[in-house]
Specification:
Length: about 130
């Protein structure tokens, strides 16, 4: 009786580890960027469409972020909205907040929780992508 329980626990934690270690943000067909207009209180029209290399760099940064299962409640609207359109026509919006002059956290319309960018290189990469 004891051996099946141990095997089940090992399988459970192994599978859970693989799921959490896998990339959460997959390859998209199109990615667009919209900036928050403080005066009008809306996201502007699409300000840029990311090319394949920019999408790849952005996915790498997003996938390397720290995940917190608790959804943060922000007092202000996100500074940037990035919308990914996937091959199956599904859309996912990423909302990025800038704190102290750097993008530090984001949420996803498809995933519960908050993602935090702690690596300064990741923050710099996002800044470069959004200012090209």
């Amino acid at each position: 009786m004891r051996k099946p329980v141990i095997i089940a626990l090992v399988l459970f934690f192994g599978l859970a580890g693989m799921i959490f270690a896998s990339n959460q943000f997959e390859k998209s067909r199109v990615a667009t960027v919209q900036l928050w207009d403080e005066d009008l209180q809306v996201y502007e029209e699409v300000s840029m469409v990311l090319n394949d290399q920019q999408q790849k760099d952005l996915r790498a940064v997003l996938n390397s972020s720290d995940y917190k299962a608790r959804q943060s409640e922000m007092a202000v609207f996100a500074d940037v909205k990035i919308t990914f359109t996937y091959e199956d026509q599904r859309n996912e919006s990423i909302y990025l907040w800038k704190e102290s002059g750097q993008f530090t956290r984001f949420t996803s319309s498809e995933k519960e929780g908050t993602f935090i960018l702690k690596d300064s290189e990741a923050k710099r990469t996002i800044e470069e992508i959004l200012t090209r």
